[in-house]
Write the structure tokens for this entry.
Amino acid sequence: MSVTLKVRDLSKTYGHGEQAVRAVRNASFSTEPGEFVAVVGPSGSGKTTLLAMVGGLLTPTSGTIEVNGRDIAGLNAGQQAAYRRESVGYVFQANNLLPFLTARENLQMISRITGANGRAARQRADQLLEELGLTNRANAVATELSGGERQRVAIGRALMNDPELVLVDEPTASLDSARGRQVVESLIQEVKSRGKLGLMVTHDMAMAELADRIIEMHDGELNVRGKLAASG
Amino acid sequence: MIGLLEIRRRKFQFALIALIVTLISYLVLMINGLGVGLNDQAGSALRNFDADAIAYSDKAGLSVIRSELSQEQVDRITVETDAKASAPLGYMAANYLKDNGGVESAAFLAFDPGTIAEPKVVDGRMLTEEDADGLLVDKSFLRYSGLDVGDTVTISVRLVERDFRIVGETDEGAFFFQPSVYLLRSTWQELKYGNVDASTPVASIVLLEGKGLAGASGPGWQAVSKSTAFANIEGVSGQQSTVQALRAFGYLIGGLVIGVFFYVLTLQKIGQIGMMKAVGASSFFVFRQVMVQVLCISVAGVAVAIPLTWLTNRAIQQAPNPVPIAFTNGTFITTSVLLVLMAMVGAMFSGRQVAKVDPIIALGQQQ
């Protein structure tokens, strides 16, 4: 399945009147099927707000977000939760695994939420763990995993519900550069091999270079450009 | 169920909460047991009467102590109520002298053998009309006095001392916070009033068997149900109110403490809750995990408290002068169910907190 994302004149303003902060201003971009896009920019540039709106965690002040032709900008809270459950896979900055669950159970948690837990869910969790090189760590509790392993489990969890979009927030923040690169490469491979659309927020240009395209954000405005020549 | 997995993996943390639930449940169960025990001491003998209603002198204000009935009144009560069965019963408080010279009080209940006022004998034999100096005593009397069936005991009343032989043991309970002792009504008349003539009261109350007798009244008498009679025993209503208040506070504080524990636990897990909601979990899904945990922990806590209370009760009963405490299956079941329910209600505060968690926190600071 090829996934497309079209963002048009998207804005997000926090507060009112003189206190208002325009975190994202009239952002527009679209992606190609199977693309992996990096969003870079300094702290406070609005990149996480953009990710949150695409992921149905924030409601835009104005503009549209079309995922496979469906506008998700006007969804209410319940519809947003269903959208996140069915169409979005998240990899968070701090991986946010449930610390008392094993690697496998953290993946199966997604199936429990969707009400589809069972033998098939376990098989899918095991398959993802195998693809991520974590088969021998499947029964390890999250607190026993290394930083890199935890982030790979988080990638598996993001793919567990077979989402259309995989949204990634600073995935290498807690990793050294070698391990960070390994994680992002494996993330891109997993996303692209499944025909998903990936959107990754990062402040690390070295990681952004691994993406198909880079969107730069500055003071809420974005500048889309192709892959950096330096990335080779 | 994620909530159950969390309990399994965080045994120590949840065991501590379960321990708190156990201690609270133990406290509430003991309060209930003491309440039942006090009630039993107040008048379990009255509750054990084979009667549906009790008739008093209308001047007695439903007090067994003050009620006195003449033969004519007793006869009229029997006729006017058209009761299936009736029996006069006399009451007096008297002392018995112990071997060491000590004095203890007991509630003396006077009956006619063969009537519905006759208590059940669990050891020894029933009094007959010939047993003018015979007594039936409650098992608690034997325990307190150190006497046994067949022994002789000196009864002191109205500056008169008289020896009685214990011919049987009953298990009818207490009356006015004293062990019950049964004797013949004719003997009671002599002991209480001295010289007996036609004007001497023949009974304190009349036990009535039959339906619809509560509320009946006639010239000089009135009948009430056994529960009304019990509630009118001197001191019982005040005691009941105190015990009920203790119970209510026990349930309330128990529910609040458990609720606060889970509320704090929920506050500590806001990041996790945010993540779960970010990946699509509904507030209800997350709240369900909390409620399942509360249910398991409170059931486990209560389940430990029950045998603990039972053992404490046994230890108390074996003491030479046990405090009034009693448990029934009903006490355990009602208290346990109410405690678990109160814990669930207390945990509702966490539900509000769960609903308030914004999933955006999973992304950390907004940029």
About this structure: DSSP finds ten helices and twelve strands in chain B.
